[in-house]
Amino acid sequence: MSRIGKKPVILPSGVKASISGSVITIEGKNGKIIYAIPSRFKIEVKDTAVSVSRPSDEKQDKATHGLIRSLINNMIIGVNEGYKKDLEITGVGFKAQVQGKILNISLSYTHPINYNIPDGITIETPKPNQIVIKGIDKAKVGEVAAEIRDYYRPEPYKGKGIKYAGEHIRRKAGKAVAGAGAGGA
Questions:
Q1: Which tens digits make up the pLDDT trace of 116-171?
Q2: pLDDT for 68-108, tens place per residue?
Q3: Domain 9-80 CATH (choose: 3.30.360.10, 3.90.930.12, 3.30.70.1110, 3.40.50.620)
Q4: pTM recorded for the entire structure
């Protein structure tokens, strides 16, 4: 059996799970998430646990078994605690600010970048060089962070760009200065 898939997912207090057909709905204090499960798999909600069972021992079913269990676990964490990604902006004149449902980012381009904030995601800019992305869907939070980071990935020479908080950028040395004897004097 899949080691991850066979473990039941424990429901914390305040989180409810319900199944109708092949759709599971998880509700908690932060919101509600709905996920359609492949019809071959069976899900059972017993008291404070959700368990997933697979139809066969084929390689694809084993992999999907663990995936479904992990997705349900991520949904439960999302509606209970939520997910958060921090981005840092490095560079002279680089900044970001939220204006309604639009994130306005000024980078070294001739024009500012206006990023439309998707539904279910909240973006804050506590400092002009810091972006905080929050939401209940782990995949959506990661996708939004990756899209914003792609506007100007950190470069290895000066370290300018948008990076994840705590991300280490491998720095490269610039051009080597010519030796004393090589100069034309």
A1: 999 999 999 999 999 999 999 999 999 999 999 999 999 999 889 999 999 888 88
A2: 999 999 999 999 999 999 999 999 999 999 999 999 999 98
A3: 3.90.930.12
A4: 0.85
Q: What is the CATH number of domain 83-164?
A: 3.90.930.12
Helices (H), the chain: 59-80, 138-149
Is-contact 115 102, C-beta < 8 A?
A: yes
Q: How far apart are CA 4 and CA 1, in angstroms?
A: 9
C-alpha to C-alpha distances, 110 to 56, 129, 158, nearest whole angstrom:
57, 19, 20
List Cβ neighbours of 65 (8 Å cut-off, separation of 6 or more).
Answer: 1, 2, 5, 6, 41, 52, 53, 54
